[in-house]
Automatic annotation (TrEMBL):
Root EC class: oxidoreductase
Physiological role: Catalyzes the conversion of L-aspartate-beta-semialdehyde (L-Asa) to L-homoserine (L-Hse), the third step in the biosynthesis of threonine and methionine from aspartate.
ACT domain: residues covered: 351-424
Known cofactor(s): a metal cation
Name this polypeptide is given: Homoserine dehydrogenase
Keyword hit for Amino-acid biosynthesis: yes
Pfam families, alphabetized: ACT, Homoserine_dh, NAD_binding_3
E.C. number: 1.1.1.3
NCBIfam families reported for this sequence: PRK06349.1
Alphabetized UniProt keyword annotations: Amino-acid biosynthesis, Methionine biosynthesis, NADP, Oxidoreductase, Sodium, Threonine biosynthesis
Annotated pathway: Amino-acid biosynthesis; L-methionine biosynthesis via de novo pathway; L-homoserine from L-aspartate: step 3/3; Amino-acid biosynthesis; L-threonine biosynthesis; L-threonine from L-aspartate: step 3/5
Similarity comment: Belongs to the homoserine dehydrogenase family.
Length: 429
């Protein structure tokens, strides 16, 4: 059959692996699709740059707009990242009726609505499995396999860099700085790790997951975000002594009344008995909780050239089959139109350590303050005596606003010298 022509935007870590797989698996891909997949061109920034894969120089171009506009191009694969020029190129492709496969989580979280509307108007497919959790099949199960179910919660580790750092801090006692340097040396972290360690990458992925899970439009602006830069070796050791491990979690959850949802990314303590506690190094894992299906767990490599390219090729095969059949994949589903509620309304739990005066009545005054803000205490223990006296408290679940007010009140008590070790707790109630 006549080949389907593919334009590739970007030839970096992921793009070079896409080219490799297209070449090495050409016969298998043709059999699975029903027609050969043929590279029409590869858009790059610099023509003479050394690449990780051999590319026919005749395919290389610095004019991405012209490549996207070519009449013989059927499918566009975008792996350049960022907002622009990626957004303009994707919209241009979709408006011309081409199908698009993208791994661009930042763009989807910032302005996915524009891309979906362009796909609808141009009658083309927009697939983006590679935008979240690398090789792990996660978005298609949410969008298609669970389309007949009611998803209530998505909880997981979706950033390999931060998981590697926290895992090394836990297993070796390393400081955040030392663990980050090791991650950079091994290629798990960028020279500028801000997007990862400050939670921006995970927040973008959380927005995409929440949109699919709750059939509503969600952007990165809807996500409460905290990074891991303030986590110390002492925090990690304290959690370990209590039977917990600290992970950077993405949490998307419906409210109890089902009328809204919360999306948040922040470090949290989880019990070492929890399946997510065993997710080591740069791996990702995500729990999906649905009414009928129950708990589902997705685990695997969440980043890297080859794993991400695997997800890209899966989407490429899907959209190629659709084009041959004259059909389209599922469109964006936003019928529920739920709103993201603010973090203050989110129900969570806290762990905290209070340096207190060692004298009678301290615990009673602390408990009185908790009661004032309608926050109940699950566990409390006293450590040390005299100047080293400390109360370690874990709360029951309460709104984040109530917990924040409690913390502010504790800092104003004359019997509390310092509040430390403040960390949300997930997964064991």
């Amino acid at each position: 059959m006549k080949p389907l022509k593919v334009a590739l935007l970007g030839c970096g870590v992921v793009g070079s692996q896409v080219i490799r797989l297209l070449h090495e698996q050409a016969d298998d891909l043709a059999a699975r699709v029903g027609a050969p997949l043929e590279l029409a061109g590869v858009a790059v920034r610099r023509l003479g740059r050394k690449r990780d894969v051999e590319v026919d120089p005749a395919l290389l171009t610095t004019d991405a707009e012209a490549l996207v506009a070519r009449d013989d191009v059927d499918i566009v694969v975008e792996v350049i990242g960022g907002i622009e020029p990626a957004r303009g190129l994707i919209v241009s492709a979709l408006s011309r009726g081409k199908s698009v496969v993208t791994a661009n989580k930042a763009l989807l979280a910032e302005d996915g609505a524009t891309l979906h509307e362009a796909a609808r108007a141009g009658n083309g497919d927009l697939y983006f499995e590679a935008s979240v959790a690398g090789a792990i099949p996660l978005l298609r199960p949410l969008r298609e396999s669970l389309a007949g179910d009611h998803v209530n919660r998505v909880l997981g580790i979706v950033n390999g860099t931060t998981n590697y750092i926290l895992d090394k801090m836990d297993s070796t006692g390393a400081s955040f700085t030392d663990a980050l340097e090791e991650a950079q040396t091994l290629g798990y972290a960028e020279a500028d790790p801000t997007a990862d360690v400050e939670g921006f990458d995970a927040a973008a992925k959380a927005a995409i997951l929440a949109g699919l899970a709750f059939h509503s439009r969600v952007t990165a602006a809807d996500v409460h975000r905290e990074g891991i830069t303030e986590i110390t070796a002492t925090d990690v050791a304290s959690a370990k002594a209590m039977g917990y491990v600290i992970k950077l979690l993405a949490i998307c959850a419906r409210s109890d009344d089902g009328r809204s949802f919360g999306v948040r990314v922040h470090p949290a303590m989880i019990p070492r008995t929890h399946p997510l506690a065993g997710v080591r190094e740069a791996y990702n894992a995500v729990f999906v909780e649905a009414e009928s299906a129950g708990q589902l767990m997705f685990y695997g490599k969440g980043a890297g050239g080859a794993p991400t390219a695997s997800a890209v090729l899966g989407d490429l095969v899907a959209v190629a089959r659709n084009r041959l059949a004259g059909t389209r994949g599922p469109e964006e589903s936003t019928y529920a139109d739920l709103n993201a509620h603010p973090m203050g309304e989110t129900v969570t739990r806290l762990h905290m350590a209070l340096d207190v005066a060692d004298k009678p009545g301290v615990l009673a005054r602390v408990a009185e303050l908790f009661a004032k803000h309608d926050v109940s205490i699950q566990t409390v223990r006293q450590e040390g005596h005299g100047d080293d006296a400390q109360l370690v408290i874990v709360t029951h679940r309460a709104t984040d606003a109530a917990l924040t007010a409690t913390l502010e009140g504790l800092r104003e008590l004359d019997i509390v010298r310092a509040v430390a070790g403040v960390m949300r707790v997930e997964g064991d109630d």
